[in-house]
Amino acid sequence: MGMTLAEKILSEHAGKKVQAGEIVIVQTDLAYAQDGTGPLAVRKIQEMGFEKVFNPRKTIFFLDHAAPSPKFELSNDHTFLRGFSERTGCRISDVGYGISHQVVAEEEVKPGDVVIGADSHTCTGGALSAFATGVGSTDAAVAMALGKIWFRVPETIRVVMNGKLPAGVYGKDIILHLIGKIGAAGATYKALEFAGDAIEHLEMAGRMTIANMAVEAGAKVGIFSSDEITRDWLNRMERPEDFRELASDLDAIYEKTIEIDAKPLKPTIACPHQVDNTRTIDEIGEVSVNQVYLGTSCNGRLEDLRIAADILKGKKIHPKIRMIVTPGSRLVYLEALKDGTMEILIEAGALAMPPGCGACVGLHEGVLGDGEVCLATQPRNFQGRMGSPNSFIYLGSPAVAAATAIEGKIADPRKYL
Amino acid sequence: MKGRAWKFGDAISTDHIIPGRYFYLRSNLPELAKHIFEYEKPNFSEKVSRGDFIVAGHNFGQGSSREHAAIVVKMNGIQAVLAKSFARIFYRNCFNSGLPAVICDTDKFGEGDVLELFLDEGRIINYSRNETVSFIPIPPVMKQILSDGGLVEHVKKYGDIRLNL
Ligand code: SF4
Predict the structure, then answer these.
(1) In chain B, what are the domains?
(2) Minimum CA distance residue for ligand 1 atom 6
(3) What is the complex's ipTM, to 2 decimals?
(4) In A48-122, which residue ranges form alpha helices assigned H by DSSP?
(5) 262-281 in chain A: CB under 8 A from chain B
(6) Interface membership of A409 toward B (CB under 8 Å)
(7) Residue A362 at interface with chain B, using a CB cutoff of 8 Å
(8) A257 and A40 in contact (C-beta within 8 Å)?
(9) Which of A107, A376, B99, B150 is a Cys-bridge partner for A293, taking CB atoms 3.0 to 4.6 Å apart?
(10) Architecture of A8-261 per CATH?
(11) What's the CATH superfamily of A268-416?
């Protein structure tokens, strides 16, 4: 009997053939936590009585959510994580180096890996054909201490997208469309596997956006086959040796298949306060905006900044808009500086923040006040996430973000292409 | 132990349970726990009694992986969370923290109803309505983690993950 990608990877790491529904213990290749979940993970490691971690080289603490720290309590958490990393030889990715999911996609994750992160968007690694999933601090602590974790092997929903993607429609629109269709719990406990010619042509940045938001449909992982685009990404990241071909078997068993035709897709927006509250740009009506936020683990890659820069080139953002740009990592920041992308964005009136999660989680660098409206490229729009519980978050692609910044209201990017 | 039901709707996220803006209190759990459900049910922390239940609709605990959400629920004395369905990470976090999460038909419970949970038998008695609600018992692996007192205690006991698979 054939296997899905999830079954294949978990079988390899369990040392036996496993199938959906089984409970298995698997070896982990990489375990990480961030500054919001890491301190608790470290305390759990200590409570369990461990003084060392299983594989320090593959255990990483990211200081990315509060980077640099806006409050002394968070500075203390940072000190705590730096101290633990120093004592145990774990890697610390300090403030300004980047968002965990972006950095591991650049430097660590490879096809076939089992990746555990104490952050729900760890599923971003599925773009690189890894079984990458978010867990809480205790599960992460166990993975760090023992190099293993238990899982229920998930059933897989196959999402097949064929056809040519229209101009102005990106990975973000695809995943928002899917979540609008199946709902925020439409894939709970399941693996989402993406296939079809539209997916095969999608560049790595778009795949990462889709994988990142798999959790917004409740999924455990959102996973892609590896191909030439995966190889190109690994080459670009100077680790060609990490490439390996990986795909599900032709006779794999899926719980169901969802087919999507790419051709009629439109720029899509998630409206407050739920990710599955989606509308196409044609249905959105007049929504005036105070803040545009470009960045995050969902859309903070060079490609995303370029999409926005192509639209904003030679233009000025609307006077009542503040546009905040936060590159996903130092590498993205440097690339965007060197190729002129950042210059275009700043000339248009955007302001740049250091690499990290920035305004996404309401800590700093763009906190919303009462009644304020933000169009953000992040993956999540729950009430109060970016600040006041009386503020409103709309989610859209970097192209929508750029068009909105120009017009001061949620705008269709297709006319700027 | 009997306890009262506190009712919530569908799609309660970990941000509803404990807002992201209290991120800076995560290393000060007693202080963090006071802010539980701040917008949903103001002053919840003062009103709730030991042994009470959270009773919710679908996809309870969606969103961020913050285990602090499960921990503050437990710290406020909640005996168990009952919901029509749970988000995946939150579900694991509950059992890892020693807090039972039970999937059942929560339309059968009203705000303030007095309930008693019989976890092993898969039933809940609703004394306010003189009704018994059955549910599919929790998975054996979750039961084992729970009976060891959470995943940390489990690993402490065995020095390893020793689930009877
Ligand atoms: S950018 Fe936002 S969604 Fe991504 S890891 Fe950071 S806080 Fe989470």
Answers:
(1) 2-136 (3.20.19.10)
(2) A357
(3) 0.96
(4) 72-88, 100-107
(5) 274
(6) no
(7) yes
(8) no
(9) A376
(10) 2-Layer Sandwich (3.30)
(11) Aconitase, domain 3 (3.30.499.10)
